[in-house]
Amino acid sequence: MASIANLTVRDDGSLEGNLATLMVTAPIAIVPNGRKTKDSEPDYRVISRKNGFELGAGWVKTSQAGAEYISVSLSAPELGQIFCNVANAPGDDPSKKVLIWNPPS
Length: 105
Known about the structure:
By secondary structure, this protein is mostly beta strands. The chain has no helices and eight strands. Strands 1-2-3-4-5-6-7-8 form an eight-stranded antiparallel barrel. The N and C termini lie close together (11 Å). The model has no long low-confidence stretch (mean pLDDT 93).
């Protein structure tokens, strides 16, 4: 598993940081979906802070151990479709998160 973004938790519940792969570096925001009306709709939207385009979505999930996390799906011509999870960053700072890529198995 590889970390592809360093994120900072904002007071409004959004996360901001930089998505970085070998081919792409882009500022992103993972923002709560204030327009969610159905359980099947995402809890978060992933937005490019460079141009405002939507790059993906995130859903709040519960791990087998009972911990909540955000499962993210990203899609763009440069990326294809990739799946990741928001996780705690190394260290003890609860305001720091990382986006972990889940490669296809």
